Amino acid sequence: ILGFGVNQYRQYEEGYMPSETNGKILKACQNPIIFETFVQNSRAQLGEKAYTRITGQLETVKKQQADVRRSLIFGEGKRTGANGFAPLSLERLRNLLLYFIHECEDVFNTKMNKLLFYADFYHYRQHGQAISGLSYRAIKYGPVPVHWDRAYSLFDDVRQEIVEFDTGITGTKLVSVSQPDLSLFSESEKDTLRKIAETFSQTTAKEISLVSHDEEAWKRYVGTAQLINFSAAFELKAV
């Protein structure tokens, strides 16, 4: 499948170091999606029986990995009041991030945290359901999604760039060249995303953090370990 000879495999099993090129191939093939490409290209040599068996095993591995990635962000994976009864979808979350990255200026981690908070709580107030599937806690700098750090590093096409300011302080900015797919969202969800982007597009991370400090969702829960109850959505002030 990989184009290596029998002797090469035996040497690697005995502990020999692969060449740089072969090492990169072996590393890349740890990703089942990439390995699947090699399998498809070798279909004729493998024969249909072996091809079907290998692709079946790959589907199992991909599902297992997807389940692990999903649990890292959404926990038990149940739609409850803690996540605003929103659909729990990594692809929807990815496209939420992409939308705000492209529609708002200078989306640092802190700003993204607040954009997601306002989108979820505003839509919950208007329609009884959040959008992202994330739960929130109140920390020093305002409401933040639980496991936000995992969420922002999970997707290959969402990059985190370290930016150093004139003061010497650094921040992490989210960037991407990928375009969001809004077909995954309902009309009311798209209206909400547009409203939040229009409201906070020019707002800096520091400014939106200060705005969020005026929300009951933050005041009531800061200093506690509790998740912010979505009932606080009915007391939003900024939107």
* Lateral arrangement of strands in the main beta sheet: 1-2
Strand count: 4
- Describe the biggest sheet? 2 strands, antiparallel
Gross morphology: elongated
The arrangement of helices and strands along the chain is HHHHHHHEEHEEHHH
Whole-number mean pLDDT: 88
Estimated share of beta-strand residues: 5-15%
Structural class computed from helices and strand pairing: mainly alpha
Distance between the amino and carboxyl termini: 55 Å
Number of domains: 2
The whole-angstrom Rg is: 22 Å
The number of helical runs is 11
Contiguous low-pLDDT stretches (5 residues minimum) are: none
**Helix content estimate:** 40-55%
Walk me through this protein's architecture:
Pfam families: SocA_Panacea. It comes from Candidatus Bacteroides intestinipullorum. This is SocA family protein. Residues 113-219 form the Antitoxin SocA-like Panacea domain. The chain has two domains: 6-73, no CATH class; 79-235, no CATH class. Strands 1-2 form a two-stranded antiparallel sheet. Strand 3 and strand 4 form a beta hairpin. The chain has 239 residues and is mainly α. Helix 3 packs antiparallel against helix 5 (48-74), helix 7 crosses helix 9 and helix 7 (109-127) crosses helix 10 (205-212). The protein is elongated and about 70 Å long. The longest helix has 27 residues, at 48-74. The chain has helices spanning 6-13, 20-28, 32-41, 43-46, 48-74, 90-103, 109-127, 148-153, 187-200, 205-212, 216-219; strands at residues 136-139, 142-145, 159-164, 170-175. It has eleven helices and four strands.
